[in-house]
Amino acid sequence: MNDKELFECQAPDGVYDHFTAELKRYMDEGGRIGNISVAALVLTLIVYYLLKRRPVADRQTESILKLLGAAYKDKGYRAAFWTIMRESSEAMPEDEFFAAAPGLERRVTNDDIDELFAFVEYEIIRYREVGERERLLGLLDVCRVRYRSADIFSHLGRLKKEKKDVVPRHVAAAVNFLKQYNPESIKAYLDRYVVGQDDSKRILSAAVYNHYLRLANPDEHLLKSNVLLIGPTGCGKTELIRRLTSLVNVPVTVTDFSGLVATPWKGRNKEEALTSLYLKAGKDVELAECGIVFCDEFDKIIPSRRYSRGGDINDELQGQLLGMFEGTVLDVPVKEGGGSEMIQMNTENILFVCAGAFEGLDKLVKKDIDKAGIGFGSEVKDSDEFELNSEVLKTKHLVDYGMKPELAGRLNAVSVLKKLDRDALHRVLTEAEDSILVRYMNEFREDDEVELEFTEDALDVIIDRVMDMNIGARGLNSVIHEMLKTPMFETPSKEGVKGVRITGDAARGISGPEYIF
After folding, report:
1. Is 1.10.4160.10 the CATH classification of the domain at 422-516?
2. Biggest alpha carbon–alpha carbon distance for the chain
3. What pTM does this model have?
4. Less Cβ crowding at N or C end of the chain, within 10 Å?
5. How much is the CA Rg of the chain, to the nearest whole Å?
6. 229-282-173 Cα angle (round to 5)
């Protein structure tokens, strides 16, 4: 499905003819469409709505998928497409195509929408490059099932009836989670604790939601949405996972991938991540097989193209990760007492979230953009002016960096996190719920019933020092702790202290903290 070509058709007739031709091609290759006219009209209406009623930024496959999902009828949806069409008809009463939407709504069934999703999947597979294709197929599955939420919840009832009230625990847990959360509410939760990085929060929220859809609907064979987060130290990658850990009802484990070697080389192997997940699940294999593994420092297993001469041990490790990420049964060592035993774990339903700094990737991407002479990249002379982002990063860049193409294809959703600037660090300190500043304030309040206060000047000093350290938000704790060493030592010994104020001079070490009695 070529977005550019599709949205160049400004009139409904042109869009309709385009879809009719593609639907016929689809049927010639074995696809099933009950009524080509109805199918083409539904898709035309979606595209026409995006052309007439939505900004240019929304004219893309993602919007088509979401609107197609909202076209399901009587399935417990929240944002009905047909209601949107009626509103469009009222807003544009002279538009004959919108006026015809109610008649089309009466003809469309949920089976028609199911068939259209199968057709769109066929189109995505035909036209998309590997990384984009996998990302859109994952989104397609989310949209296809999300708007049939009534089916998800009734699935549990059917299982109870068929299996005499014996329901797999992971299915029950997944259904319960889906009753409470959707991608928007998951992101809203992350917004409370992580400042900015909206693209990464959206991708991660959709991946977690899709993870639960897969668990709740095992017969749907939905695609797994493994995630790759790329960003410098201290930009929020680990914090995102830490916050998800307290939200989800499946085990989450963090494994440092730096230093891992291919099995059976002596050292830390990939199975270590599964061992950790098994222990986090209380040695419950069934629960562990539905968990989430955060692969930190993932870039450390990528051999640099500049130094690798083939046969690299990390290159071998990447090959072994293919099956683990996609889904396979592995022997996992578990130490018990003085010895160890092997258990088997199926990774098919484990969500893998990989993260790393990928130093030098930005220069590789910038060089590629400069060479192509497209967009703003051709005008960038100084590498310091170029900032890597999700829009310019392609799968080929990860492959050029040293990642196996097959492994890059297993990481369906890729997002680039931005380096935290002064404004972002200030927001981390003052806006994030449960920030490091709030934790120190709570410590003073709970231990000695003392109110801790930082002046704006003191916050500037903190940010200056953290910026000099160049490790992002990770430097906040050490800098603030150093400033609070004196009041943490003196406050318990001072009677009648009600507050401690850290001024700019105190933060610089020119004066001591101000005690308020």
Report:
1. no
2. 86
3. 0.70
4. C
5. 27
6. 70
